[in-house]
Amino acid sequence: MSVATAGDVNGDGYDDLVVGALASEGGKGKVYVYYGSVDGLSESVGWTATGEYGTDEFGISVATAGYVNGDGYADLVVGAPHYWNPDKGKVYVYYGSASGMGSNNRPPDWTAVGEDTGELFGYSVATAGNVNGDDYDDLIVGDPGYNSYQGKVYVYRGTASGLEDSPVWDQHGQLTGDQYGWSWRRRGFERRWARRGRRRCPRL
Ligand SMILES: [Ca+2]
Ligand SMILES: [Ca+2]
Ligand SMILES: [Ca+2]
To answer: What stretches in the chain show pLDDT beneath 70?
Structure first.
């Protein structure tokens, strides 16, 4: 199970919560959003979505994507690293709105799939913050199984119409077995760059 703030997906001034249950629905996985209110988090589930295939483990990673389309509603990202064929992995982003996440199991607004089998694309997902200082937050996706667990991370840029289809930046691990991209904190990400002799993350 994974839990995270979803940010404020319905723009009412109260932060909302997302919970992932990766073993739910026979391994498809399922996520739950609970909306915040003046009385705190609602007891009832506000929104759910279910993975596509039996071993996807949709929801193993959940996070706010920040404000990727700059509309004032926070957006949600969900990873399903064991998605089909096998373990290519897939990432789903749902844009927030005045009605929050909308109807249960609605289609995602943006998806991306791993490049090859066994990659575990989406094992970790997070907002990248706003790496290029425009009006849109950007998304980071970890792919720890890439090239015999060398691992790779991808950054996708937000725009007024949402996330771009292709990553604007990627970086892979140095050695087989590094599992680069397994997890990070934003500061850890910077530290990894510092270890490689750079003081700051590169400009994108
Ligand atoms: Ca809210
Ligand atoms: Ca948004
Ligand atoms: Ca940006």
So the answer is: 184-204
